[in-house]
């Protein structure tokens, strides 16, 4: 495990060190290829470690294994936060729930809240690039939130769970993990298709004796709701963008944060992949999505500068197999502070 910043963080009253561990840093529902012999990066997942407690933001590909490689234990898990329900942010949640049957029984704080979006209530519109309208899966319940996701994990693995509940007397998954869907403040004007990220002030979604977590809506259409989270501790704060286009809401959430971890997509890669007029419907739709729902490296620097963030870390990188140097130059053009491109299992201390 490498260390991005060696200075231990303590609050003014000698609080415990606070570490941000970038468990996985790649973006997109993909297994990226090796680049220059480097190990293929894990999917997006970030741990905040406050004393003995661990707070997990997103559970991308490999998150459970990365927790172990980071020297963390699921018995330390205090809360899980899900920015949005794209597969690359939740694909390892079933593993956490299943293996938590063994790992989490003796922990101090149960059940672990899984905090994230609720059911959006309607399907997104069909892409204008479609020549033949596609048919959605499970039209009877097409847009479950985190509560539906956990319920369906239980249903899908009921054979396994029931075998262990009845024979080995293990607790059911609901004893270890409990969904807590985020309720938006009244009057936001949110609409899952027409107004995915209205201007709003950050609002609290979680608090305990060590951490206060606030959230805001960010634009990642067509998926909605999508959230960014800010985790404040006595030693400092980290703000995690989730997937988003450039967002004024995120600027407000990240105001003077010690560390802004922001998604980034490489503009040149977009041109290399989609820079042709000979595209099929799917490629045209993908290009349109990337342009309206993500943030280029240089734009991430602008967001950090506007927010007055003390440091900018680029993660959830698309593509996930570029060398770090490729990300640094554009971000440094737009952000005058320290720019980090942490790898998997890197540690950043707060403040």
SSE blueprint:
Layout lengths: L17 E7 L20 E6 L2 E5 L5 H7 L7 E5 L5 H4 L2 H11 L8 E5 L29 H11 L1 H10 L9 E5 L21 E5 L4 E6 L9 E6 L4 E4 L7 H6 L5 E7 L1 H8 L6 H13 L3 H11 L3 E8 L6 H10 L3 E3 L5 E5 L1
Parallel strand pairs: 3-4, 4-5, 5-6, 10-11, 11-12, 12-13
Antiparallel strand pairs: 1-2, 1-14, 2-3, 7-8, 8-9, 9-10
Helix pairs in contact: 9-10
Account of the protein in words:
- The chain has helices at 63-69, 87-90, 93-103, 146-156, 158-167, 248-253, 267-274, 281-293, 297-307, 325-334, and strands at residues 18-24, 45-50, 53-57, 77-81, 112-116, 177-181, 203-207, 212-217, 227-232, 237-240, 259-265, 311-318, 338-340, 346-350.
- It has a seven-stranded mixed beta sheet with strand order 6-5-4-3-2-1-14. The chain has a seven-stranded mixed beta sheet with strand order 7-8-9-10-11-12-13.
- With 351 residues, the protein is an alpha/beta fold.
- The relative contact order is 0.17.
- It is globular, with a radius of gyration of 20 Å.
- Helix 1 links the parallel strand 3 (53-57) and strand 4 (77-81).
- Helix 9 (297-307) crosses helix 10.
- It has ten helices and 14 strands.
In short:
The protein is of the alpha/beta class and 351 residues long.
Q: How many distinct helices?
A: 10
For the terminal residues, how far apart are their CA atoms? Answer: 20 Å
Main sheet record: 7 strands, mixed
Q: Helical residue percent? A: 25-40%
What fraction of residues sit in β-strands?
A: 15-25%
How would you classify the helix and strand content by structural class? Answer: alpha/beta
Number of separate strands: 14
Query: Uncertain spans, ≥5 residues at pLDDT below 50?
Result: 1-13
List SSEs in N-to-C order. EEEHEHHEHHEEEEEHEHHHEHEE
Radius of gyration: 20 Å
